[in-house]
Amino acid sequence: MSQLRITEIFHSLQGEARTIGRPTVFVRLTGCPLRCQYCDTEYAFSGGSLQSRETILQQVAAYQPRLVTVTGGEPLAQPGCWDLVAALCDAGYEVSIETSGAMDIQGLDPRAIVVLDLKTPDSGEQHRNLLGNIEHLRWQDQIKFVICSRRDYQWARLQLDDLKLAERVSDVLFSPSYGQIDARELADWVVDDRLPVRFQLQLHKLLWSDEPGR
């Protein structure tokens, strides 16, 4: 498909993952089949505007970025996302794609970095995880857990061990759900248990709260 439904394209700082703090252009696709209870991008569930791949590339190029992140919603819910990711890689950008883990990632351009968000029990969407995606991850990719509770933490620890996640990807990210769990408490758990993970706070929330387009 040459057209995709886009909620917004904006320039900001990457708020999380390995490139946190670096200027990045975000391409936010519209639509998501999940309804995580902590979602902060509900405005991307519907609406947006249909745009051609060429128009999207022109808007991205206007910012002269080095990094581009394709996100949502759930970007892989739109069939044209695979071609968009490939086109962004062809344009010479460092490309990452943020996906829920509920969509098959097989066939994504290998030049792109996948940030796979495995849904915890308290997200309300654990049943949507496609664990077969783990087999398609490369060392350059990242796995994220949004932790809402001690129960979530224990579940994420179990996945870390059972699936040997720290041996599969360069970074496993543990992030406290904003406003639902004390960040210092989660940090203490990670330190006390000596987990091979990267603890992270969402920089964009600290700087701009939940303001869209930031």
Describe the structure.
The protein is of the alpha/beta class and 214 residues long. It has a single domain, classed as TIM Barrel (Alpha-Beta Barrel), CATH 3.20.20.70. 25% of the residues lie in helices and 25% in strands. The longest helix is centred in the last third of the chain and has 13 residues. The protein is globular. The chain starts with a strand and ends in a 6-residue tail after the last helix. The mean pLDDT is 95.
How would you sum up this structure in a few lines?
With 214 residues, this protein is an alpha/beta fold. 25% of the residues lie in helices and 25% in strands.
Please render the helix and strand layout as text.
Layout: E1 3-13, E2 23-29, E3 49-52, H1 53-62, E4 67-71, H2 81-90, E5 94-99, E6 113-118, E7 142-147, H3 150-162, H4 165-168, E8 171-176, H5 183-192, E9 198-199, H6 203-208
Parallel strand pairs: 2-4, 4-5, 5-6, 6-7, 7-8, 8-9
Antiparallel strand pairs: 1-2, 1-3
Low-confidence stretches: none
Determine Rg (CA atoms, Å): 16 Å
Q: CATH superfamily, please?
A: Aldolase class I
Helix/strand order: EEEHEHEEEHHEHEH
Keyphrases for this structure?
globular, nine-stranded mixed beta sheet, 214 residues, TIM Barrel, alpha/beta, 6 helices, 25% helix
